[in-house]
Amino acid sequence: MIWSHYLLQVNIYLVVFYAFYRLLLDKETYFTLNRIFLICSGIFSLAIPFMRVDWFSKQEISQQIYVQVEQLNQFIVQTGTEAVEQKFNWGNVIVMIYLLGVAFFLIRFTLQLLAVKKMLKGIKSGLAFSFWKKKVVAQNLPEVATVNHHEDIHIKQLHTFDVIFFELLGIITWFNPIIYLYKETVKSIHEFLADEAAAKFQGDKEAYSMLLLNQAFGVNVNTLTNGFFKKSMIKKRIFMLH
What we know:
73% of the residues lie in helices and 4% in strands. By secondary structure, it is mostly helical.
């Protein structure tokens, strides 16, 4: 399979699956189901193009069409070689831009990992976040036991796996705006799941909502981590909690 064709199909499936999610699941409070759907959407988007190739390769008619198309392509290439050589090759430019984008986001991802490693070595006042099996919770936070439980949920449910998966997927699909919606949505679902458990732990949804609201101006942390205080999510987290 040609890489460009595969990449195009992956991005199309990502759009289709996310559109389905927004239309039917976005307002639902089945957070675990929503999380599974989004992860499967990413996995299936990567896998389906291979499945389609395997299926079509078994069809005799498709094989005949493929041969005819290949013959036509060879004819076009042979007859148009001189004309193409004289023109600017936009295909190479697009490939170079794509590879530069991949390199940029790969370097960015690596730097973020190094930043997380550094953050895990020290506890900053007012900070609370988790990454894989490690967490950082400042002891000067109000309701620190509840915040600790919130971060424990992130760890137990392996939320970092989702974040890393979509970050890696985003490296090869960086030009597709939908991938950034996937990242934002899956992180929101992580917070809804942890909030739901933390509110039960505290025993009072209203009190937990006030805890979120009072800490709305907390410290922003690395995008690879699951942070307790994320300013942009506070309003929706309180809404989904009820």
